[in-house]
Amino acid sequence: MASTDIATGTLERHGLSDDQLRAIFRNMLLQRQLDNRGFQLNRQGKVPFALGSEGHEALQAGAAMAFNRGLDVLAPYYRDLGLCLGIGLSPYEILLSIFARASDHNGGRQFPNHYSSKAAGLMSFSSILAAHLPHAVGAAYAIKYRGETGRAVLATCGDGTTSEGEWHESMNFASIHKLPFVMLVENNEWAISTPLAKQMAEPQIWKRAAGYGMPGRRFNGFDPIETYAAVKEAMDRARSGGGPTLVEGTCYRYLAHSTDDNDMTYRTREMVAERRKQDPVPAFEAVLIEHGIVTAGDVAAMRKSVLDETNEATDTAEMQPYPQPSDLYTNIYEGAWQPWQS
Amino acid sequence: MSTRKSELLGFERHGLTDEQLIAIFRTMLMQRTLENRGFQLNRQGKIPFASASEGHEGVQAGAAMAFARGKDILVPYYRDLGLALGIGLTPYEVLLSLFARAADHSAGRQFPHHYASRRLGLQTISSVIAAQLPHAVGAAYAIKFRGEEGRAVLTTFGDGATSEGEWHESLNFAAVHRLPIVFLCENNEWAISTPLALQMAQPDVHKRASGYGLPGAVVNGMDPIACYAVIGEALRRARSGDGPTLVEAKCYRFLSHTTDDDDRTYRSRDEVTARRKDDPVPCFERLLVEHAILTPEGAEALKRSVLEEANDATDRAETMAYPAAGDLYARVHADGWEPWL
Question: Quick one: DSSP state of residue A81?
Fold first, then answer.
C-alpha cells in the first residue's frame, strides 16, 4: 500500500491516530458486511433490490474521516454505503432503507440504499446520474451566500456520471463562484456495463479540473489513508474560502452493479479475480497488523462485533411495519397540509 | 493582426491565392453590410428581429474558406451570417430569412438569421444555446458509421454555450468515438449580457480540450488567414480519421446581442471603442492593400458591388409574398401527410 514508506518502513498516517485508523477499518468491515447483506436479503426474496459497493470501502471510509460532522454537507450517490456509515448513519438505518419500512427516514418511499438524514447533513439520493450535483452546488452556494465559514459540501459520483451535462454545469458554476465544494469521483472503471474506454477518451478524470480553473488531484482509492489526505486537503481548501477541487479516487467495482445486474454478461471472472488481489479490506488489515495498530485477535473481535451489529440491525429492521396505504400523502408537505384536498 | 506582424518575414498566406484572399475580404464586407442591413430594416419597422455578428467577420470568412463545399456539413449558431455566406448562401437567401417570406428555405417559419440549406450542407439553426451540438455530433457519427471518407462536420457556438451540459456531452461523445468534427468556439467575451468572467473561471476555452483527450487550438479570430489555417488543419484531421478538435477563435461582439438588446445597460462605450481598433474588416483591407493584393480603388469597387448586391437582394426579398395562412400545416410531415386530420 502506498501509505507505507518503503525506505523507512514507517506508516504515513497523515495525522490519523490509532483510534481513527481502527475506526476507518471498522467502517470498511461494516460496509462490506452490509453490502453483502443487501445481496443476501435480495436472493432470499426479502428485499426487492440492493446496490453493490464492494471495492469502494477504502475510498469511502477515508473520505468520511475527512468530513466534519455537524458542519459539512454530504451529497452522495447510490453506491456510497460506506460514506454514509462513516458520517454517522447506523446499520439499523441502512437496513430500514433496504427493507423499505415505515420508520425509514423517508417513510419507505425511496429506493433501497438511497438514504437521507437531516441530522447527519446527508442529502437525499438521486437514482438519476448527476441529478444531485446541481443540488450539491446549490447547497455550496447557500453556504457562501449566507457568509458561513468552516463548512463545505462533499459531492460524489462514479466515472459514468462525468459524461452527463449536469456534471459539467455543476463544475463550471462551482468554479465561477469559488464555492465551498469538493467533487469526489469514485472511478471504478464501470458505468454499469460500459467500460471506461467507452465512457471517455481521456481516462484521467482529474485532468478536467484545469479546464475549469480549479485544482485537480488523483489518488489511490484503495488506500484509505491516502484518500483521507487528498479529500481533507480539498475540504480544508473549500472550508477556508479557497474554492472547489476535483478529486478522483481510483477503485474497482467487484460485484455486479446491483442485484438486478449480471456482470458476467459484460466482463470475465478472470478480470474481476485479477483485481481482487488489490481488495482494500484485507490489504488495509495487513497494513494495520504490520504496524502494530491492531492484532490478529483484535481483527477477529472486530469482525464478530460488525457481524453481530449487522445481524441485530437486520432482525430489528425486518420486524418493523411497512408504511400504511393511508400514509400515502404524508411526508410530502410539512405538517398536514394537503393542497390537493379542498 | 498576427499576419501583419510577420511583414518583415514576408506575408504568410497559408497557400491562399490572391483570388481566395479577395473572396474572403468580399465575404467579410458582405457580412458587415447585411448585418447592418438587418438592424436598419428592424429600425425601419420592416422586420421583427435581427441578430448581430459585427466583429466575427474574420473568423467566419476564414473558416468558410476551409469548408469543403459539397462534402462538409456546417452546423452553425445564430451569429454565423458570414459563415453561411462563405459556404454559398446568397444575400437574397439571407434577406428572405430576415423578411420571413414564403420563398425562404424554412418558408418563413424560422427566426430571422436562422438559415438552412440542404444544398449547401447547412443544418437548420437552433435558437436554444448548444442544442445544435448533439445534432452536429450525430451527423459526424453518421459519416463515420457509413464509412464515408473525406467529409467532416464544422460546428460553431459562442463562449456562453460552453457552459451548457450539451456542450460537454457532445465533446465527450465525439472524443470517445473519434468522430470527424471540428468544434469552433467564437469567443466574443459576451454571452448576451454576461461577461466571460461570470461565464467561466478559466477564460481559455481551448484548454478544456485536453480533459476530453482532444487537441485544442487557439487562434486570433480577427485574423481570417490565421483562422483559415487553424480551422483548415482541424478539418483535414477530422476528414482523414484523426478525430475531433476544439478550436477557439478570440474575437469580439461590437454590436448589441440582437436588435432586441441594448448593450449600453451592461458595458461601456469606452470598452467597445477600445476594441474597435481590432475591427477585422478595415484591418484586413489594409493588409490586402499593403501587399498589393488589392488597390484602394479595387477595395472601393468591391464595397460598391457588395452594397448593390445587398440593395438588390433587399428589394427583391421585400416584394416576395408572406406564407399564406393556408400553408400552416405544410412542411410538418413529408408528402402532405397530416395525421391530425
Answer: H
Number of domains chain A contains: 1
The verdict on residue A72 lying in a domain is: yes
- Residue A229 inside a domain? The answer is yes
- Residue A202 falls within a domain, yes or no? yes
Residues of A taking part in catalysis = 253, 257, 266
Asked if the structure places residue A337 within a domain, the reply is no
Question: Are the Cβ atoms of B175 and A208 closer than 8 angstroms?
Answer: no
Cβ partners under 8 Å of residue A242, min gap 6: A178
Q: Rg of the Cα trace of chain B?
A: 20
As a whole number of angstroms, the distance between CA A203 and CA A190 comes to 12
- Going by the DSSP 8-state scheme, the letter that residue B210 receives in this structure is G
Minimum Cα–Cα distance from B175: chain A residue: A201
Chain A positions contacting chain B at CB under 8 Å are 163-169, 172-173, 175-176, 178, 197-202, 207-214
Architecture of the domain made up of B12-319? 3-Layer(aba) Sandwich (3.40)
pLDDT digits (tens, 9 = 90+) for A112-127: 999 999 999 999 999 9
Residue A46's domain spans which residues?
18-319
Distance CA A169, CA A189 (A): 23
Q: Is the pTM of this model over 0.95?
A: no
Task: Pick B201's closest partner by Cβ from A167, A169, A176.
Answer: A176
- Tens of pLDDT, residue by residue over A28-67, are 999 999 999 999 999 999 999 999 999 999 999 999 999 9
CB contact under 8 A, A172 and B200: yes
What's the CATH number where A209 sits?
A: 3.40.50.970
Listed by start position, the domains of chain B span 12-319
What residues in B contact A166, CB-CB < 8 Å?
165
**Helix, strand, coil: what percent of chain B each, to 5?**
50, 10, 40
| Mean model confidence pLDDT for chain B | 95
Nearest to B132 by CA among B151, B112, B115, B107: B115
Distance CA A151, CA A145 (A): 12
Beta carbons of B169 and A164 less than 8 Å apart: yes
